[in-house]
Amino acid sequence: MSSRRQRRTVHSVCMVLIALLYVVSVPWCREQEAPLRIWLGMPDWVAVALLCYVGVAIVNAVAWVVTDVPDTVDESENSEPPQ
Amino acid sequence: MNFGIGGVVSLVLYLGALLAVAEIARRAKRDTLPSDHFLADRSLGAFVLFLTLYATAYSGNSMLGYPGRAYRDGYSFIMATGFMMSIIVMFHVIVPRLRPIAVEHAFVTPGDYLRLRFAGPWARPLRLIVAVLMSLALANFLLAQLKAMGDVASVVTYGRVSYPAGVIGLAAVILIYETRGGMRAVAWTDAAQGIAMLLGLAALLCSAGCHPRRAGSRKSRGPSRNAGHLRSAFRHRRSVSTGSARLR
Known about the structure:
The structure holds two protein chains of two kinds. By secondary structure, chain A is mainly α. Chain A has three helices and two strands. Chain A has one domain. A two-stranded antiparallel ribbon of chain A has the order 1-2. The radius of gyration of chain A is 19 Å and the shape is elongated. Chain A starts with a helix and ends in a 5-residue tail after the last helix. Chain B has one domain. The longest helix of chain B is centred in the C-terminal third of the chain and has 48 residues. Chain B is globular and about 60 Å long. Chain B starts with a helix and ends with a helix. The C terminus of chain B is likely disordered. Chains A and B meet through helix 1, strand 2 and helix 2 of A and helix 5 and helix 9 of B.
């Protein structure tokens, strides 16, 4: 049971990380007239976006590894908690 | 790029191989139930499913459409990579909840879930509306595939196969093997095409990486010159986009 809870925690952390990576991938703070800097042979904001997407792919894979996809409905999940 | 008569021969061999795989898939059918035709009796393994998803997601639009759009729009189209990946991420919301219900009630189509979830007089119109909306959304992808097929057939054969003939002919081949073999034929041919695409992309990367005059090569250009080239390209793009904005 605790292992299941741990997997859910890891899954939730992965989802938050993915959301953060998507937020970081957008160059929100970059001004339109900002000087162009080259990283890894491409504009810096493109390199950042690409690295974020690679990170998303890795974290997403981890999230799927720890995700339980049961073939039967877990009744305990659907039942209302006691008031 | 064109391959002349070699392109025609390759295209014929490729289509022949696809039809052969589809025929093997048809013979592997276990029964005549809809679940066997539409879901391959839920028997597809992880390897085939991975390649099927890969070949489905990275099909004509990403092989031909995205490079063209990236060439036209510049680096800003890098965001499309994130959009494509978000599809797989969103599966986390749907799959763990839908999968057990789908197995328990033996769903075959999305309409089966709607039938279970919603009852009453509006259930049938709702299913119809959802089916129409899904068809409209998928029509974009279908149109992109048809266009890509026509372009590829025409270019690869150096015009020996015309664009309309390419669209109609290749669509007919797909229709034949999907009708005969069902989901199993789709998945197996997708797997074969996924492997071909992976090998082709790997060869493309190797070819670009091994080329002595590749962009960004320190030996051929040096970092400063490459940076200058990128800067001038960036300025050019900005001036073009400013110009187009003014025109609007």
